[in-house]
Amino acid sequence: MSGVPVEGVYGDGPYPGEFPYTRGIHASMYRSRSWTMRLFAGFGTAADTNARFHELLAAGSTGLSTAFDMPTLLGRDSDHEWAIGEVGRAGVAVDSLSDMTELFAGVDLGQVTTSMTINGPAAPIMAAYIAVAEANGTPRAQLGGTIQNDILKEYHAQKEYLFPPRPSMRLVTDVISFCAAEMPRWNPVSVSGYHIREAGSTAAQELAFTLADGFAYVEAALAAGLAVDDFAPRLSFFFNSHSDFFEEIGKFRAARRIWARWLRDRYGARDERSMKLRFHTQTAGVSLTAQQPKINIARVATQALAAVLGGTQSLHTDSYDEALALPTEEAARIALRTQQIIAEETGVASVADPLGGSAYVEWMTDEMERQAEEIFADLDRLGSGSMLEGVYEGIDRGYFVGEIAEAAYTFERAVNAGERITVGVNAYTDGDDRAPRLLSIDPEVEALQLKRLEGVRHSRHDDRVRTSLDGLAAQAADPSINLMPALIDAMSAHVTLGEITTCLEGVFGTYREPEVL
């Protein structure tokens, strides 16, 4: 601000852009390209969310991020018995190609990158997105974006799985293989620690469980016959940025270092792009309070700053009212403006890894790495030398669920005892607790979506629907066949998401979580 000229980087090497990329994956970091400002959006009908997408793009958002409602996340149609009262509530309802078409109406999918947060039914949802893009003249090879498709953390934390772990992993590797062959700009898996942290894990557990899942996907893809450098450059990650400022920065720096070393030394990567861990960050929704909700703006700003100083490639900032309801347009705009202030006014983007060399930050980075390596060693033993088998075994034994539950209990007990301060909750409680104006979902949304779904079923060609589902079932029974072409065909025939899920359940079965005492 005073006009003092600054260099692009300070301190000793290895510098940003150099192995093991602790200080960042690019030499110039944000001096040459800012992070993508991507706000998570989705509610009501596809038309409602489409309008929010256009508002965010007009306000300066540089990417889209799609939140689906609970029935869609569970692979069910809006008229399923599980969907009653949930349609369009926590995200947008997508039952068929018709909804996906309306969701992205007027958006040039060849120019805007899109993130879709969905896991169990990720493959059919991605098939619908491809079908919409190609119907609008955008070849699949031009599509850029990310589908979360991280089924392993569903068994650890989020619980939105459809099938048992092993056939679910087959769907993930089918998407990885399909993208490696036909969609070079697409990230086929966003390995997510976000939901692990939101479930109550510590920062070190989030780091270790997430990277362990990433190693498991690498081993699954290698077992499917892919070469590591053919797919690893397109694997991406998704982390939480919580309130312990320096711990979070250390976590991000340790993540890059660990991934680089494991990909080179254990999995034989030679392409440096395979070793560079790229990640999206979201501020910690679980840290937001319903009490004095506007002070959440300060929490979000601090967490977002930690993500930027940790070197994130894209960032979602939560809206201050999310402890109470889906974000209003005003709250979403403040969340976006928070990122823009950090990027444009603070100067933190002028120097790559500006905290590199700080004794405390370097110690914290080492400590996060040390704790994560201890967990990797345990999982490696569980899998007799295979991280993939170790993760499967950890799921079967309830290891991940138990560890996260214990950490969440410890944290909550500290808050209740007043040993950990949460402003507005157990300290400084004399503020304004009045709820701001909230976004409410009109009950009519569910009726409209059911009518829309009924219309799809009446207007399609039943013979083509039957043929598509029969073909999908037959191919699902043969693990040597990649299911993505059959899923694109089914979605193009207006087969619904729920019908596809039911078809695959007939082959793969369903999953029941083991009890953890």
Automatic annotation (TrEMBL):
InterPro entries: Cbl-dep_enz_cat, MeMalonylCoA_mutase_a/b_cat, MMCoA_mutase_a_cat. Gene3D superfamilies: Methylmalonyl-CoA mutase. SUPFAM superfamilies: Cobalamin (vitamin B12)-dependent enzymes (SSF51703). Pfam families: MM_CoA_mutase. Keywords: Isomerase. Residues 15-509 form the Methylmalonyl-CoA mutase alpha/beta chain catalytic domain. This is Methylmalonyl-CoA mutase. It comes from Candidatus Neomicrothrix subdominans.
